[in-house]
Amino acid sequence: MTKITLVTGASRGLGRNTALSIARHGGDVVITYQSRSEEAQTVVAEIEALGRKAVALQLDTGKVSVFAPFADQLRSKLREKWQRNTFDHLVNNAGHGDYALIEQTTETQFDGLVNVHFKGVYFLTQALLPLIANGGRIVNLSSGLTRTSFPGYAAYAAVKGAVEVLTRYMAKELGGRGIAVNTVAPGAIETDFGGGAVRDNPDVNKLFAGMTALGRAGLPDDIGPMIASLLSEDNRWVNAQRIEVSGGQGI
Known about the structure:
The protein is α/β, with parallel strands linked by helices and about 250 residues long. It has one domain (about 5-245): Rossmann fold, CATH 3.40.50. The chain is about 45% helix and about 15% strand. It has helices at about 15-25, 35-50, 65-80, 105-130, 155-175, 195-200, 200-210, 220-230, and strands at about 5, 30-35, 55-60, 85-90, 130-140, 180-185, 240-245. Helix 1 packs parallel to helix 2 (about 35-50), helix 1 (about 15-25) packs across helix 8 (about 220-230) and helix 4 (about 105-130) runs parallel beside helix 5. The protein starts with a strand and ends in a 6-residue tail after the last strand.
């Protein structure tokens, strides 16, 4: 049976690359987007061009109140598109960058990061658990910044650290259903994340390249295929792990 993966925040960046990589591995994909409907539909068309099925659903992962109706909408789409009541893999990718030194961080910035990167991951997964098939997989996205420190990233890295702890607890509590849960922690990647600083600012790009053993910043193609591989049966015994994919950043 073809596996179905839900990838949050997949209209662009790492989410888009992950969704396309999963399709290239023979999987079908449900993607979510917050506001970029046209870009999301373009991703759906790209997945369908690869011979796979896909749908795009709107979701604000920072608003817990929308998760129950989203789960209902997803259930309907699964029945309509796949004649199924469940999906197989959840990739909690959606996120945003908001950076400031500790002394300059506002409560609004802090709450926004917590709501999207931690609270959203926690309660969206909770809402979708009845729809995740036994033997399924969950991948939570973290960051290389939980292992190394860089000024201005304290709040962002702290909520990602919380996700890493949550991953281990998810693996423990969901193990009885055969659901494996892992964290993937990318290093600095050239996308529009955080205003596109790594991609568009040569000085920032050079800085992170100099911190990386392989001598460059990462690309989306360094991450999406790895996540697709982690979801495959080849990695069925990998569970409760933090897997850094950073080219050797900060070693």
